[in-house]
Design a protein that fits this description.
mainly alpha, two-stranded antiparallel ribbon, 2 strands, 3% strand
Length: 130
């Protein structure tokens, strides 16, 4: 929830800057000013999460699944939130999905469970250098 709150506070700060270009705005959380690098890290995480969600939804739609079911199944797998929408809803399962869609959703489930930054860090060259 803190990530969502920080994103909303950043959006508010942008609108304040539009109206008052010379103002100096600080993002505060629990009464403490959030350091700029932490703010950037959180915003990067949220943007990356949304990008992966959209990309995953597009890939699942390409396999022949309707957009509502695709978005619901991707959200379910990435966030681990339980039943999805559409044909993967509370009374259904993922059994009818094509194998490639199940593979993509499985990868998204791993990415969502391990945290996105951690998964991408594993694939960097500097991670493997000792």
């Amino acid at each position: 929830m803190a990530r969502h709150l920080i994103v909303i506070k950043n959006i508010k700060a942008v609108f304040v800057k539009l109206n008052h270009p010379k103002s100096i705005t600080f993002i505060k959380l629990n009464g403490k000013t959030l350091p700029e690098n932490t703010n950037t890290s959180i915003l990067s995480f949220v943007v990356l999460y949304l990008f992966i969600f959209i990309l995953g939804t597009i890939i699942v739609v390409i396999t022949g699944i309707d957009p509502v079911t695709s978005a619901g199944s991707v959200a379910t797998c990435m966030a681990g939130i339980g039943p999805g929408l559409g044909s993967v809803g509370p009374l259904s399962s993922f059994a009818h999905l094509p194998d490639i869609a199940k593979l993509v959703l499985s990868l998204l489930m791993i990415i969502g469970r391990l945290e996105i930054i951690t998964v991408f860090t594993i694939f960097t060259r500097t991670f493997w250098k000792l």
